[in-house]
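ok here's Polygalacturonase, seq below lol
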Amino acid sequence: MHEPVAVDGLLLLPLTLIFLDFILISSLANPTPITSLNVLTYGAKPDGSKDSTKAFLAAWEAACASPNPTTIIVPKGRFLVGNLVFQGNKCTNAPISFRIAGSIIAPEDFRVIASSLQWIMFDGVTNVSIYGGVLDAQGSSLWKCKNSGGKKCPTGAKTLLFTDSNNISIYGLTSINSQKFHIVIDQSNNVKIDGVKVSADADSPNTDGIHIGKSHSVNITNSRIGTGDDCISIGPGSTHVSIQGIQCGPGHGISIGSLGRSEDEQGVENVIVSNVDFMSTDNGVRIKTWGKDSKSFVRNIVFQHIKMKMVKNPIIINQHYCLDKPCPKKESGVEISNVRYEDIQGTSNTEVAVMLDCSKDKPCTDIVMGNVNLVLQMVNGSAQASCNNANGLANDVVVPLTFSEKKNTKMIHKTSCLLLLPLTLIFLDFILISSLAKPTPITSLNVLTYGAKPDGLKDSTKAFLAAWQVACASPNPTTIIVPKGRFLVRNLVFQGNKCTNAPISFRIAGSIIAPEDFRVIASSLQWIMFDGVTNVSIYGGVLDAQGSSLWKCKNSGGKKCPTGAKTLLFTDSNNISIYGLTSINSQKFHIVIDQSNNVKIDGVKVSADADSPNTDGIHIENSHSVNITNSRIGTGDDCISIGPGSTHVSIQGIQCGPGHGISIGSLGRSEDEQGVENVIVSNVDFMSTDNGVRIKTWGKDSKSFVRNIVFQHIKMKMVKNPIIINQHYCLDKPCPKKESGVEISNVRYEDIQGTSNTEVAVMLDCSKDKPCTDIVMGNVNLVLQMVNGSAQASCNNANGLANDVVVPLTFSEKKNTKMIHKTSCLLLLPLTLIFLDFILISSLAKPTPITSLNVLTYGAKPDGLKDSTKAFLAAWQVACASPNPTTIIVPKGRFLVRNLVFQGNKCTNAPISFRIAGSIIAPEDFRVIASSLQWIMFDGVTNVSIYGGVLDAQGSSLWKCKNSGGKKCPTGAKTLLFTDSNNISIYGLTSINSQKFHIVIDQSNNVKIDGVKVSADADSPNTDGIHIGKSHSVNITNSRIGTGDDCISIGPGSTHVSIQGIQCGPGHGISIGSLGRSEDEQGVENVLVSNVDFTSTDNGVRIKTWGKYSKSFVRNIVFQHIKMKMVKNPIIINQHYCLDKPCPKKESGVEISNVRYEDIQGTSNTEVAVMLDCSREKPCTDIVMRNVNLVLQRINGSAQASCNNANGLANDVVVPFTPCLKRDMLLI
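and the structure came out like this:
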C-alpha cells in the first residue's frame, strides 16, 4: 500500500546551474526517476479534523530512505498535525521536496503544540525543499493570553525550524498566525528562501517573520512579511546573509541582534540588506546589542536601496538594548564596525530619523553613509539625527546629518560623528575611516547660546547674525545648530566678504518663520540672503515665510500690495549645498540662485498654494554648475525656472505639481540679455501642471540664445502643455508684437511619455526672424487624457529631426490647395537610423520634399454626419501616385466613413503617412460596415504609417445583438486590417468599440505598432485587440489594451513576433492560437513576450490548439518579465481547445516545443495558476521554467499547478509546482 510511485515532471536543477536558452532536454538520456509520495496514501485526511501527524512522519520515513529524489505531495485540503520532527540522521541525503497545495494547520488549543518549542522541525537534514502551501499555527488565542497579562501563558512554539541542516530551499510558502517565530534557520548552511508570505497581527508578541541564528550563506528574496515583531532578525553567529526584495510591514523592521546578552556570544558579519520597502514599521534597519560585557561583534554590513514610508526609527543602532528588570546599565562590549548605509530614502514618523546610540567603551567605527534622505512625514517639521559615540564618513547627500551636541558654551570643539567629505570624492566601500589621523576639529554653535528663542514669538534675528559672525571668522569648519522649535526672524543678510571661507553648515531641526505681517519682510526683496559666501551648506529644517496674506492681497487686485520677498537667496556665492530643506508659503520665489557657481540642491520640499502668484520653487539666474535632484515642488508658478546667463544646469529626479512646470526663460526682455546653454532635465514627473517643459522668450529684438538643451525620461500626467516653445511671450500691455530675436537651437526631447489635458500636446511656436533649428525628438508619446480624442501638435518656424516614435508629430499646415509642397517641421528618419545626439540637421542639404494632403481639401467633413468615404479615397489616390513622401492629414473633428479599401497595387511605394488629429467614426447602424469583413483595409501597401487619432467603429449595438442571442446578427467587421503589406508603422492610434478584431496584421512583414490604446467592453464578443496571422517581423510595444477577448492573439503562420511593454486587461490575455483547426495549417515560431502587466484577465500567457489531427507546430517561444494581478489562468497550455458542438474529442496534432517561462510573478484568481494540458499523441517537450512565482490572491489558500503530457526543465524558483501524471523525467 505504501509503495513509492515514480512520476514524471519538470526537474528542478541546482540553483547554481547556468540557465541555457531552449536547452535540448530531449537529447538527454537515462533520466533519474523521482519518487512521489502522497500523504493521503499514508492515511492523512484533508478535512482539518483528523490528526494526520503519523501520516506525515510515515511519508517522511519512506522519502528519507529512498536513494532517488523524492517528492512528498500534500494535496488540496486542510491537514491537522501536532508537533512534527523530521529527523535526517538516517536519510540517504537524496533530495526531498514537499509540494504543498493545501494547508497544514495546528490544533486550535494552543497548549497542544506549545508544549514543545517548535511545531514543525527539520533536524539534521540535507537537500530539502518546500514549495508552496500554507502553515497556519492558529496562534491568535495564545497572543490574546499574552496580551492580557496571563501568567500561565506558555512561550509558544516556532512554526517552522531548520536546525543543523544544509542545502535548504523554501519557495512560495505562506506562514500565518505563528505562536512565536514563523521561520527559524538555526545552525544551517546554504539556505534559500524566496517568495514567502508571512502574516500575523501587528500586536502579536514575538512573532518574528524569519529568524537566522548561527547560520552561513542564507539568501532571502522577494517576500512579503507583516508581523508583530521583526520582519527578519539576524542572531549571533550568522555570516554571509543576503536579504533582497522584501516588503516589510507591519512589524519591527529588519534587525541584527539582539547581540551580547552572554559574554562569549558569537558575532555577525558579511550581511547585505538591499531593495527593501518598509511600510509603517516601528523600525527600519536596526542593530541592537545588550548593555553588557561581551566579546561579540557586528562588521561588514551593507544596507542599501531602501525605501521607508512612515517608519518610526528608519536607521537605528541601539547599544543599550535591555529587556531585563532592572537593566545592568553597563556599556555594551559588542564592537560595531564597517557598516554602510547607501541610497536610503523616504519618510520618518518620528523626528529622530537616524539614531546612532553606540557604546562609550566600544564606540561604533567606520560608519559610512551616502545618498541618505529621510524627511519627516509632516510637512511642517524636519527630521533630525542623534549620534553618540559613533565615527565614520558621510559622502554625497546625508539628510539628516548626525552630530553629538554639547550646550552651554559659545564655541564647542568637537569631531563630527560622520565626517562630511567633499561631494567630488569617490565613494569607497568600507573605507577605513579609523585610519584618518588628526581630523580637523569642527566648531559647533547653537543659536540658543546667542539668545534665539524657539517660541515663535521673540525676534531671533540678532541671535542668528551673531552666530554667523562667529562662524564667519572661524578658521575651522563650523556648524550653526538651529534646534527644535519655531524661530521668528526678520530680514537676514549673511555677508561673506569678511569670512575665512572655512566651511559653514546650518543644521536646522526646527522651523524659521517670518512675521505674520507680510509688510515686515516685504520691505526688502529677500527674506534670507547669503551674499558673497563660499562653502556654505544648509541641512534640513523648514522656512515658513507666511506669505498667504500677501497672496490674498494680490489675488484680490489690491493696488498697494508689495512685490514680496524671496525666501532664500544666494548671490555672488560659490560651493553651496542645500539638503532636505522645506520651504513653504513664500511671498515670492522660494529659492533663488543668482550669480553663483557650483551649487547642489537635493531632497528639498517646496510648497505653496496653486493660486499663489509668482511663487517659483527654484529660480536660477546668471549661475554656472547648478545641480538640483530628488525634490518635490508644488507652487503657484514654475517649479523650476532658469533665467538669463545660466549654464551647465542639471535637474533630475523632480516631482513637479501643482505649478507651471519647468521653464527656460523668460529670455530676451532686454536686448543684450545673456543666453542659456547646456541644460539637462531628466527623470521628472509632472502632475496636473499648466506646462511640462517650456522655453519662453519675449517678442523683442535680442542677442540672447537657448542652445544645447536636453529634456529626457519625463512622465506627464494630466499636463496642459506638455512640450511648449513660446517665442511670443509677453506680460506688457500693450505687447510689442515683434518677432523674438532669441535664437533657439540644439534642443532634444527624448523619452517623454504621458497624458495631455489639452488637445495641443506639443506646441513649437518659434520666431519668424530666428526660427528654431536642430530640434530633435525621439520616443515621445503624448496622448489625450480623454479616450475619445487625440492629442495634436502645432509647429511654426521650427525645423529638426524626429527619430523613432514621435506622437503627436508636428507639421506646418497650409490649406486650400490639393497638394501642398512643404518641408516637415521635424523630418521623420527611418526607424533603423541610429539616434545621434544633437545631430546637425541644418547641415542636411536639399531634403526630400514631403507632400501634404488634407482630407478637407477633398471634401471630407469633420461634423460626424456627412459621409467622407470618397474624400479619404481621393486623398489616397493622389498620395499613392506621388513619387515623394506624402502625409495625409486628418485634422481635428469627427469624420464619418463607410468601408474603406486603400489599394497599393498601383502605388509608387514612396512613404505615405496618415497624421490623424481627430476621430474617424463608423455609421451607428452596425449593418452598414458589417456587410464587409473589415471596416478599414490596406491591401498590398508598402511604407505606410499611421500617427495618432481615434478609430471608433461604434460596435456596441452589435455586441448587444450577439450577447442577447440574436440569430441574425452579422459576424462584424474588423476595424483596421493590413494584408499583403510591408514596412507598416502604427503609432499612438486609439481604437475603440470595434465590431470584431480591432487591429489585424495579415500576411504582412516588418510591422511596428507602438503606443496604441485599444478599448472595448469586457463582455464585447471577439474583440481581440491586435491579431497577427501569417506575418513576419511584427513588433508591438508600449500599448494599453482592454477588450472582451485576447489583448493580442498570434495565429497560424506567424514568425519573429516581439511583444513588449504591454498593459493588458480586461480581456483574455495574450494567446498563441488557436492553431490546428485545419490539418495543413502553418505553425508559429520565434515569439518573444516580455515586460507585460496583466490585470484581472481571464488568462495570462496562453497557447491553445484544437483537439484535431494537424501538422502544425509552436516552437521557440519566450514569455519573460511578466506581472500577473488577479489573473484567472496565469500560465496555460490548452491542447483541447474547441468551440464546435459537438467537439471532436481527439488529441491535438500540434507539436509544442521549446517554450520558456522566465521571471513571471504575481497573483492568481484561481487555484490552478499553471496548467499545462498537452496532447497525448504529441506531448509538449522542452518546456523550461525559471523564476516563476505565482501565489493565490487569497491569503488562506495556495496556488496549484496541473500538468498533463508535458516534459521539460524547471530551474531556480518555480512556484507552484505539481508533478505531471504522465511524463518522462529528464536530468542534466
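fwiw Residues 53-65 form the longest helix (13 residues). kinda neat tbh
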